[in-house]
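To illustrate the input format used throughout this study, we show a single complete record. The first block contains the structure-token representation of the backbone; no residue identities are included at this stage. The design step must infer an amino acid for every position from geometry alone.
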């Protein structure tokens, strides 16, 4: 199983003085980053890109908020 640094960026609608982005940082162990996101976002339509070697970016929508999961191999 590989270990990844995971950054989850949630772009929320700007209202009530909230920041437009919220970031979460995690360390996760998984063999399949896309399957990991499928568990977190059941039924969500996923867009997967591989911008760099060892990096996987999965984007989806959750309750009208754009959510980006960026996995970087440790």
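Output of the design step:
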């Amino acid at each position: 199983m590989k270990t990844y640094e995971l950054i989850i960026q949630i772009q929320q609608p700007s209202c009530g003085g909230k920041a437009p982005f919220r970031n979460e940082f995690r360390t996760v162990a998984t063999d399949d980053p896309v399957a990991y996101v499928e568990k977190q976002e059941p039924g969500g339509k996923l867009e997967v890109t591989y911008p760099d070697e060892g990096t996987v970016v999965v984007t989806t929508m959750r309750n009208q908020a754009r959510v980006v999961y960026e996995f970087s191999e440790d």
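Structural context for interpreting the output: The longest strand covers residues 2-11. The helical segments are 33-40.
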